[in-house]
Amino acid sequence: MAYQNATLPSFSGVRMDLCEGLMKPDMSPDAYNVDTRTGALALAGGFTRVMPALVEADTPFERMYVYATEHGNRYFAVSQDMLFLYDAGLGIWSPLYQFERGVTGERMDFLKARVGTADRLLIACGTEPMIAFDSETGLIDVFGSEEKLSDRTVSFVELYFGRLFAAGDPRAPSRLYWSKAPGGGRTIDDWRSDASSENVSGGFVDVGVDDDPITGIFALSNQLLIFKRDSLYRLLGDRPSNYRIVSVDAAFRQPIHTACVRYADRLFFLTDGGLCFYDGQTVRRSAAFRALEPLLKTANLNGVRAAACDDTLYFAIRVRYGAPYNDTVIEYDVLRDRYMLRNGFTIVDFCTVHGALHALTGGGKFVTFDGNSTYDGDCINAHWQTPLWDLGRKDTNKTLLRLTVCGTGRIRVRVDADGGSYETSVLLSSVPNSVTEIPLRALGRVFRLRFSNVGGAAFTLDAPVTLLYDSQRRPE
């Protein structure tokens, strides 16, 4: 007999693009609803409903938004034909505005802006002129006017060097509009030229050709990115007299508007190949670009929603065929360049306000991710699976004998080997830093370990984890 030890040094992230035999032991080809930020394995934090009332609609949900004002947060939900506002006084969701021609989430945008001396939430929907919400009165008004040339039907809006930029007009799909420079009696709802100076005037420019429509605009600190269906441009300059529109020469798969999210003056976006970002000059692939490629290749990314909270990016995608809403969330830890996956709920849309991530679920729940141990009362089923191990020798039989671990809570351990499977459940010691030994019974040349929680309960499995096994050379 030859007793040996193998170590699982830490728990890191999900990776699916490599042969399991080539993966580092801290990576997992299959893990959901776990947190590995400290190197230990723990249950991922859940979410809690913000308000008890469900939002109900006759058509599917498309978007949500949290408008933070000095009077408190105002909560919006959007279905394909209706804008709803939560009435905190009555504790109910109330219809606020009906979209006569319907809307889709991928051609809809929200923007906090000051119009004259009033703060407004601008809502562009792509099927009718923009509307503006006044938080003091709780009323919706049509934004702009025909006289000021700002009654255009647009889908995307941004503030850049104080001006309002807009695009996505179906009558002029390549047209980029901008407002007058605010101040001196000028407001961002005025898109006309101004005889006093070109530099305070509103205006527009056609970017590229109409059969390559604009699909999104995003303001960074020193440029405005203009995504088109087949190309990417950037607008440089801070006033019309020095505006320059330059094509970005980069090969990448074009994202939809809602798959893009800003972080640290970079724009990240998810494609069916992986995660890309614009670094201020060109588009680059993230270091772990292909880590989730097998998942993304088969997923439906037509309704991706994205948000950033602290140093984590969130992307909701649809994995289950025919699912009405996004059913899987990709978490990307920017600092560690690591991915994690979540499931067990559906997501319509995300929004981050004051460092808190909010979401609307397909069931009409408005929730906030607050580290709760459940998904608003639903159990969080978590698991982590190691890569397939041969411990450097496929020509030897390994008899797995024992795991030695530290941690808290109850965990289930499953071993799948070419010689059979074994599963056990154990309550880890409640004494801090105490060691628990978990007996195993499994034989094989290759094997994998799977750790999971029991009944949705919270747990922590500290790193490293030590495996004791007996290795014997197979007969010739």
Characterization of this structure:
This protein is mainly β and 476 residues long. The chain has two domains: 3-43 and 383-473, Sandwich (Jelly Rolls); 46-372, Methylamine Dehydrogenase, Chain H. The protein is 1% helix and 48% strand. The strands form nine sheets. Strands 1, 3, 4, 34, 37, 39 and 40 form a seven-stranded antiparallel β-sheet that branches. The radius of gyration is 26 Å and the shape is elongated. The two termini are 17 Å apart. The model has no long low-confidence stretch (mean pLDDT 94).
Query: Tell me, what's the shape?
Result: elongated
CATH topology of the largest domain: Methylamine Dehydrogenase, Chain H
**CATH class (first level) name of the largest domain:** Mainly Beta
Radius of gyration: 26 Å
Q: Can you give the helix content as a percent range?
A: under 10%
Q: Any idea what the CATH superfamily of the largest domain is called?
A: YVTN repeat-like/Quinoprotein amine dehydrogenase
Put simply, the count of helices is: 1
The end-to-end distance, rounded to whole angstroms, is 17 Å
Average the pLDDT over all residues and give the rounded result: 94
Count of strand segments? 40
Class by SSE composition: mainly beta
CATH architecture of the largest domain: 7 Propeller
List the domain count as a whole number: 2
Unreliable residue runs: none
Largest sheet: 7 strands, antiparallel
